[in-house]
Amino acid sequence: AREKAHLEFVEVLNVKEQVVAGMMYYITLAVTDAGKKKIYEANIWVKEWEHFIKVVEFKPVSDDSVKTGDIVDVPDPNIPPLQDLARFAVQDYNKAQNAHLEYVENLNVKEQLVAGTLYYITLVATDAGKKKIYETKIWVKEWEDFKKVVEFKLVGDDSPNPGGITNVPFPNLPEFKDLARFAVQDYNKKENAHLEFVENLNVKEQVVAGIIYYITLVATDAGKKKIYETKILVKGWENFKEVQDFKLVGDAIK
């Protein structure tokens, strides 16, 4: 039998999905129970074509504590909420160190589910007019309006050691398509070619003094689909983009 409870939804902390006969959603969420904030996990089975939704499981995890999750990349590091977090970290550092850093932009953001969310942000800030790169770790519990800078450190003067190359989970987000189109247009201009961009197959990124994107894409050449690989250096805070490599991989795909 269903329990007679009076939980009130607060926010979603994490969502994962699995393709089954329909879609299974694994949701970690915060609710209040008699005014006390708690964390629950729900498994929900959805078959949209049948207008079918079923809660397979709903259980408390603990009172405001969940197991540490994997650290995952955030596809767009410069959406306003993440820029606001980075500014918060810079302001916190300025206050603690009597410094005068000025935030410029984020280079990379990763997140990890803990009792809340831990954000790992690589950002650019100016120190006495000179651009430098910093790394910060920020712990956020939104349902408590809680933010804490766990770490803030200098990486280098706008030239950090190259980071690891990581996969981007959604290669056909508009910003990655725009980058691929930019590379195709650059190639067309240099080689007097007439390639037409179709789609991205894979995108990887690497934090350097900016971000290098490794994109595998499909383009048509005289109506025939071919696969290309390109390497693009981006420094968003300078509005800088440069195609470092563009090459044919295969003559055609089916």
Automatic annotation (TrEMBL):
SMART domains tied to this protein: CY
Domain of life (superkingdom): Eukaryota
Keyword terms, alphabetized: Protease inhibitor, Thiol protease inhibitor
Entry-linked CDD domains: CY
Molecular function as annotated in GO: cysteine-type endopeptidase inhibitor activity
Domain Cystatin: 1-61, 66-155, 160-249
SUPFAM superfamilies associated with the record: Cystatin/monellin
InterPro entries on file: Cystatin, Cystatin_dom, Cystatin_sf, Prot_inh_cystat_CS
UniProt xrefs under PROSITE patterns: CYSTATIN
Family statement: Belongs to the cystatin family. Phytocystatin subfamily.
Protein name: Cysteine proteinase inhibitor
Lineage of source species: Eukaryota, Viridiplantae, Streptophyta, Embryophyta, Tracheophyta
